[in-house]
Here is the input.
Amino acid sequence: MSTESTPVPSGSGGVIGWTIGVLIIVVGMVVAGFMLDAGQVYVVPTQNTYSEFTKTTPVDTWLPVGSAPARKLQWNGAEISEVKNQNMTKADAFALGMSEAKWLHAEQEGKTVDVAHLTGSEVVTKWFPKGDQAGTGWTGTGQTVSWETYTALPATMAADKRPENAQLSMSRTFGIWLAAIFTLCIMSFLIGDNPFYKTAEAVVVGASAGYYVALNFYTGIVDKLLINVFPGLVRAWTTPGLSFEQEFDWIYLIPAILSVMLLCRLLPSGGWIARWPLAFIIGATAGFRLTSYIESDFLEQIKATITSLWVVNAGDQFMFWPSVGAVVILLGVLCCLVYFFFSMEHKGVVGKTARMGIFMLMITFGAAFGLTVMGRITLLSDRFMFLFKDWLHLM
Here is the structure.
C-alpha cells in the first residue's frame, strides 16, 4: 500500500537547495516591493455623516386585522383599541391592504372581515445625510453616525498625480500581497507536490468552505426559510426594509421540518431519520432537472436539426455558408443516429455512414474538450493579469 508524500529531496543537499530557492523568492519579492511598489494600493477617504430624524403622525383608522398596513402601523407604535367583524366587498378589502389569501379565507366565512381600530401615533425613523433638509414634519434626535469610505486609485497612477489626501491602504496592500503569494504557491505545483502548494490548497479550501457556509445560511435559511416563517424576526434582525406584505406562510414549515430531520444524521442512533428528507430532496431535484434537461438537451437539439436547408436573408437572397452549415448539421445528426442503430450490421453503406458518425462524435468531443481547456486558460491568464497588473504594476 503506497501513501502520498511530498517529494522534497532528503539529505543536506536537498534542504540547502530548498532553502536557497525560498531565499531567492523572498529577495525577489522584497526587490519588487521597493522598486516596483508592488501591491501598493492608494485610496482617497471620504467622510460620511448621517443624522437621525423622526416623524410622528397621529393614527385613527380602521384596517383589516393582519393586513400589511395594519402590521406596519403596529410596528411603528400604533395600538389596537377595538376589533369588530363586518361585511366587506373584495374591492374594499383590497383597498385597505388585505391580501388575496386572507380574502379567500374571509369568503369562506361569509365575506366577513375582522377589522381593527388603530389609534395612537406612528413614529417613523430615518437617517438623512448631514446638511440635507429632512422636510416638513421631521424632527432631529441629535443622533449622528459618521464613517469613512475609501475609493481605490488606479495602480498605474503616478505619485505626482495622486490627490493630496490620498493615503496608502495597508489592509488592501496586505490583501494584494497575500493573494499574490497564494497564487505563486498554487503555481508551484508545476515543479511537483510541495509544502507551499499543500498550504495554499488547504487555506483556499477552508476559506471557501467558510464563505459558502455563511453565504448559504443567509441566502438559504434566512432569505428563504426564516423570512417566511418568522418575518418579524428577520425584519428586526437582518432586513429592516422588509416589506410588510411578507407574512407567515405555513407551507415553509415543511422544509423546516425536513432540515431538522437532516441534522439527525449527526445523532449516534438517529441516522435513519435523515434518509427520508434526503430521499425527498433527491427525488424532487431529479424531477426538476428532468424537465430542464429534456428542454435543453433533447428538444432544443431536435429543434436545431429541423431547420431550413435553403437559408435566405431578409431580402430573400440566398446565403451560402449558413445553408452549408444547416446541411452539415442535418447529415451529422443522421450519421450519429446510424452509428447507434445496432439492429443492422455496420457493413457497406450503413458501415460507412456509421464511421462518419464516429468522426462527427470525435469532432464534437474535441470541441467540448477544447472549450474546457480554453476555460482553464482563461483562468490562468486572469491570474497572470493579476500578478503583472495589480501586484507588480507592470501593465
Residues 347 and 354 are 9 Å apart (CA to CA). The chain has a mean pLDDT of 85. The two ends are 50 Å apart (CA to CA). The beta strands are 42-64, 79-87, 112-129, 139-152, 167-168.
